[in-house]
Specification:
With 162 residues, the protein is α/β, with parallel strands linked by helices. It is built from 4 helices and 10 strands, in the order βββαβαβαβαββββ. The strands form 3 sheets. Strands 4-1-5-6-7-8 form a 6-stranded mixed beta sheet, sandwiched between helices. Strands 2-3 form a two-stranded antiparallel ribbon.
Length: 162
């Protein structure tokens, strides 16, 4: 099984700019994350976007949906910002794509090292995508959630079933 990994941006790929004090994008970290994890399965990585999810538009979501439709692979993981991950997951779910699609991200950038949840979330997403039935899911905090039954709890800093 080959997994298609779409990069769309979000905190998982952000870097801290020491001069401006802001988080922004330089280079995606997924290739390094895969190498560090020692994952040996087949993964095809495609950068669709590199945006903060709060800046995503409907056109961006349409682009992600189309990428999922066009992918020859039936198992897809997409990195995404956590603030609007549910919106994008629901847009994909509405498209009725007969594939296993798992969105994941991080609350803390991968570049922050051991304080980041990025590696754990990506590892979980790669595992879940291989065993779940076709549908659209969010994988965060060691759990997977159906796209229509999850929300981000901004106070607790995690995703919860609803």
């Amino acid at each position: 099984m080959t997994i298609r990994l779409f990069l769309t941006g979000g905190t998982i790929d952000k870097e801290y700019d020491e001069i401006t004090g802001e988080l922004g994008f330089e280079q995606p970290h997924v290739q390094e994350m895969i190498k560090v994890s020692r994952y040996t399965g087949d993964i095809e990585v495609t950068q669709v976007l590199l945006k903060d999810s709060l800046d995503m538009t409907q056109a961006d979501r349409d682009l992600i949906v189309q990428a999922c439709k066009d992918a020859k692979e039936t198992h897809i993981v997409a990195t995404h910002g956590t603030d609007t991950m549910v919106e994008t997951a629901l847009a994909i779910q509405t498209a009725n794509i007969d594939k296993v699609i798992v969105l994941t991200g991080a609350m803390v950038p991968y570049s922050f090292g051991t304080k980041s949840d990025a590696m754990f979330n990506l590892g979980c997403a790669l595992s879940f995508v291989q065993v779940l039935k076709p549908g659209v899911y969010i994988a965060m905090n060691g759990h997977y959630f159906d796209a229509a039954a999850v929300r981000k709890d901004k106070i607790a800093g995690r995703f919860v079933a609803q």
